């Protein structure tokens, strides 16, 4: 069976068929997990100078100043300077004057990840001695390397940044808290943002008390920086575009080199068979995601997997074009009012931003 060539300027003539996420089952070796502990591509170029504080939210400006000072304090010559800074080693006579970690305390969309990545970039150390990852990526690293090897691997770092620290799994929280305790003893500085515990009031806004309580003995090492504000992805921006037709989504997938095309329901089933630690690898090389038949997700497990995929697509700035229901109808009212609502609102916000990006994709036939 032959296929018609794509119209001039709309896609590759030799292979117009789009890719499929459902056809991918990536395997990620442990060494890649370590090497990829850097800010995601979306945050390659962010710096404190590129963060635009809301003039109505002075806490944002104050957070930038505090983080710039924190980064400057992480200088020093080699391990000895770092250990002196935090009061470790034989030369240390007393406890350090400042905290060993910072926790960015704010709602979704106020730029916490931007600031966390800026801290990573500003810290005076070579990239191999700084690590940046989500809580899920950190737990996956422990699973791949084992606890002791992970401690050994990260102990030589000057800074560990943990985005989206998960507080809704007590076992993982204890595991990572124990890991961080070992790293603090080795002189590693820490910085974190977090998600909140289920069933608590205010998940969409501030979670410092939950975070500091859950990490127990480490709480004294963190200074909480409160960042007030609205979701910047919606601040002064137009509403998300309405869904497209199936025909338009399909045509765009065929007209866009490197695009994937999947039906939404089979994709959700496929995500259940792929560990979330591999969702980043699942999207390797994908330039746009095209989805047909988007519908409300059927259950919470499926919803949480979709949240992880949305995060990885947002990290990689992959536009998403879809037909079906709008992204703000993905999650039920019960989900949006439950303990994981912060995650769901973040996913809606990020998918909406990616849907806007999809408006510039070629229209196809």
Describe this structure in words.
- Helix content is 39%, strand content 13%.
- It is α/β, with parallel strands linked by helices and 365 residues long.
- Strands 2-3-4-1-5 form a five-stranded parallel sheet, sandwiched between helices.
- Helix 5 packs across helix 6.
- It is globular.
- The two termini are 20 Å apart.
- Mean pLDDT is 82; it is low at 1-14, 77-97 and 197-206.
Strand ordering within the main sheet: 2-3-4-1-5
Which structural class should the secondary elements be placed in?
A: alpha/beta
Distance between the termini: 20 Å
Shape: globular
Radius of gyration: 22 Å
Essential attributes:
365 residues, alpha/beta, 5-stranded parallel β-sheet
Write the layout of secondary structure elements.
Layout: H1 30-35, H2 58-72, H3 78-85, E1 101-106, H4 112-122, E2 130-134, H5 135-145, H6 147-155, E3 159-165, H7 170-185, E4 189-194, H8 208-214, E5 222-227, H9 246-255, E6 259-263, H10 264-271, H11 279-282, E7 288-294, H12 300-315, E8 320-324, H13 333-336, H14 341-357
Parallel strand pairs: 1-4, 1-5, 2-3, 3-4, 6-7, 7-8
Q: In brief, what are we looking at here?
A:
39% of the residues lie in helices and 13% in strands. With 365 residues, the protein is of the alpha/beta class.
